[in-house]
Design a protein that fits this description.
Oligomer: single chain
CATH superfamily: Acid Proteases
Helix content: 10-25%
Largest sheet: 7 strands, mixed
Number of strands: 10
CATH architecture: Beta Barrel
CATH class: Mainly Beta
Number of domains: 1
Amino acid sequence: MVASGVADMGRVTAEISIANYWDVMRAQNGELSPDAVRHTTISGIVDTGAARLVLPQSAVNELGLRVDGETNVRYADHRTARRPIVRDVWLQLCGRASDFSAIVEPDRQDALIGAIVMEELDLIVDCTKNDVRPRDPDRIISEIE
């Protein structure tokens, strides 16, 4: 599975599925109906220069995610702010999924997908094809020095 969109300076857009990780786990354990899992699909910008996952406040509210701290953020125009961090975000991209923490951005409409997500899911950006794809389609490869 390949996610594709518009590339711009190391950025590609992709649709991601996100859910409340605890709902996903409860559904897997038979404690919650799969239909009751809080989830949504949103557009995301894969930015190879960003580190973290950033989600819009509206998506965080929809998933019922709890705030678990704050972080300082610095924007490209050098403004700074404090933003909440949420944990237990289940994210799926290119058929691969894991749970992550995310910075919450109140006025954002899409997600920002940084290097942590890309590394964990072993995905690469192919700017010549404007897509995101698994480095190896059959398995996640972890590099260890």
